Amino acid sequence: MVRRRAFGSRFGAVLLAWVALSGNASAQDQGEILGAEDEPAEGDLLTFHGFVSQGFLWSTANNYLAQTDRGSFEFFEAALNLSRPFTNRLRMAAQLFTRDLGPLGDYRIAFDWAFLDYRHDDWLGLRAGRYKIPFGLYNEFSDYDPGRLQILLPQSIYPITFREFLLAATGAELYGYLLLGSAGALEYHLYGGTIFIEPREIGVPLESRLDVPYTLGGRVLWETPAEGLTLGASLLGVRLDANIELAGTPVGIRVPAVLWVASAEYVRHRLVVAAEYSRWQLDLQSTDETVVPSALTVSERFYLLSAYRISDLLQAGLYYSGLFPDVSDRSGRESYQHDLAATVRFDLTPNWLLKIEGHFLRGTAALSPALNDGIPRSDLTMNWGLLLAKTTVFF
Amino acid sequence: MGRREILRTWWHTGRRRLPAALVVLALLSVATGALASDGSYQVIVHPENDLRTVDRTFLSRAFLKRTTRWPDGRLIRPVDLPADSATRRRFSEDALGRPVSAVRSYWQQLIFSGRGVPPPQLSDDRAVINYVLRHPGAIGYVSAQAEVGNAVVLTVR
């Protein structure tokens, strides 16, 4: 595991070194080598971008993501990326990312993504390396604050604590964009590879061994003839193998999982309306039923959101998100979490924003007993509120 | 009224009012979205480009780099004016169907997921015209009053 993660880091480092060594070639030099048609356009050469975010969380009851019931500033994110075209078809891109979110992250710096991208034509491209997983409408953008209105995307489908599982994979991704004439256009992705997971990022003991033998999936988005309306479907298959020690007993766990989501988004001028419905099937298989019982669970997740750009300086939005961790048992506060959220975003300057977001939640299904003094979810406060504020500087 | 009761009340009333709030937002969008092309910008291409007419869907796909090739296979090289340019604002609302700030968000999403970079942004009409004349696959937009020289002005449908 350590060896494989080290390989991932080295891959990103090699890409960066390659870019640094070749970064002094001008567009004109490249044009002479590659021919005018292959020459990257002016302004498309080496580009750097980055952001730094600091947030604050406070909850009326229950600790969520951090020690929020007394207010927490443990909500920090930063990234620095670069993109470098070598020809009009081939380019590389990489991003370093760090975060601190309650017990997660702890300011460790890692490659968020790093890949080579060959776009043969609009209908066929290939990315190789560590790439963002195309799942649902917003998964690729879920850890980039300035690219969206909400501080927290609907947590039923984009849980911020699942970032290690859902955000990026290492392997290869085929993608394309196909015009369908009067029927609109189709965007598609097909990918396979593995996921490197840091044990402490998902709250298991550091000495645990975690492996993801495979992750396979795809996404199709159909830009319908109705202007602004996109429909989509995503499928993700992944298996997690873990060897952990609980109460002094070593246990082997295997969790094949299948996740799918159906998506709809309508974008018209200043309005965005989106809805997604998803089910995740987890088949937990254990070597010791007395310590970790095997179980097959299917969770249900959905949301409806709307965002409106009132002016260049101000956006506002609402969403309702629902989560049922086990569709066969919907009784009790621990078996659901309804989340009604409202956000305002102020773009104070072209490179500085401030967001404020309020959540009214019913249910405790997504709460962590570990953050709540070991109190079981069934005993945590059923109706609670969460207030978030976040500011981001970006370039 | 206790904190929990306030939350419970907000939860119940808020949940009932959500559909109405969404409808209000939708109506606001339709009201502000009814912009039409008023001839306040010109879309220009290189003289070697055979195209004389484009539709807004093509313009949108080209400037958002969804489509990257002209019908003859040549690379499309879109170029933008600055974000605070009045011409860009009109072009963005009319041709791309969204305000400049929304287009910026679109590009930021692609930049920070590694999926693309925005078109180069040039300072004024003259710089855009020079860029278009230097690159056979280029497409740009300038103000209605700009003298475009040898560049070809496209009719936007």
Describe the protein's architecture and organization.
The complex is a heterodimer of chains A (395) and B (157). Chain A has 395 residues and is mostly beta strands. Chain A is built from 3 helices and 16 strands. Chain B is of the alpha/beta class. Chain B is built from 5 helices and 5 strands, in the order αββαβαααββ. Chain B starts with a helix and ends with a strand. Classes of the chains: A mainly beta (395), B alpha/beta (157). At the A-B interface, strand 1, strand 2, strand 3, strand 4 and strand 12 of A face helix 1 and helix 4 of B.
* Mean pLDDT score of chain A: 89
Number of helices of chain B: 5
Report helical residue fraction of chain B.
40-55%
What is the quaternary state of this protein?
heterodimer
Shape of chain A: globular
Radius of gyration of chain A: 22 Å
Strand content of chain A: over 45%
Low-pLDDT stretches of chain B are: 25-37
- Report how far apart the termini of chain B are: 60 Å
Stretches of chain A where pLDDT is under 50 for at least 5 consecutive residues are 1-7, 23-35
Largest interface: A-B, 63 and 55 residues
Structural class of chain A: mainly beta
- Could you tell me the radius of gyration of chain B in angstroms? 21 Å
What proportion of the residues of chain B form beta strands (DSSP E)?
Answer: 5-15%
Order of helices and strands of chain A: HHEEEEEHEEEEEEEEEEE
* Amount of helix of chain A: under 10%
Strand order of the largest sheet of chain A: 1-2-3-4-5-6-7-8-9-10-11-12-13-14-15-16
Q: What are the secondary-structure elements of chain B, in order, as H or E?
A: HEEHEHHHEE
**What general outline of chain B do the C-alpha atoms trace?**
globular
Largest sheet of chain A: 16 strands, antiparallel, barrel
Short description:
The complex is a heterodimer of chains A (395) and B (157). Chain A is mainly beta and 395 residues long.
Give a topology summary.
The complex is a heterodimer of chains A (395) and B (157).
Chain A (H helix, E strand, L loop, with lengths): L1 H21 L4 H8 L12 E13 L15 E11 L4 E12 L7 E13 L2 E9 L30 H4 L1 E12 L5 E10 L14 E15 L5 E18 L2 E20 L2 E16 L8 E15 L4 E11 L12 E13 L2 E12 L19 E12 L1
Antiparallel strand pairs in A: 1-2, 1-16, 2-3, 3-4, 4-5, 5-6, 6-7, 7-8, 8-9, 9-10, 10-11, 11-12, 12-13, 13-14, 14-15, 15-16
Chain B lengths: L2 H31 L7 E5 L7 E2 L1 H8 L13 E2 L7 H11 L3 H12 L13 H10 L3 E6 L8 E5 L1
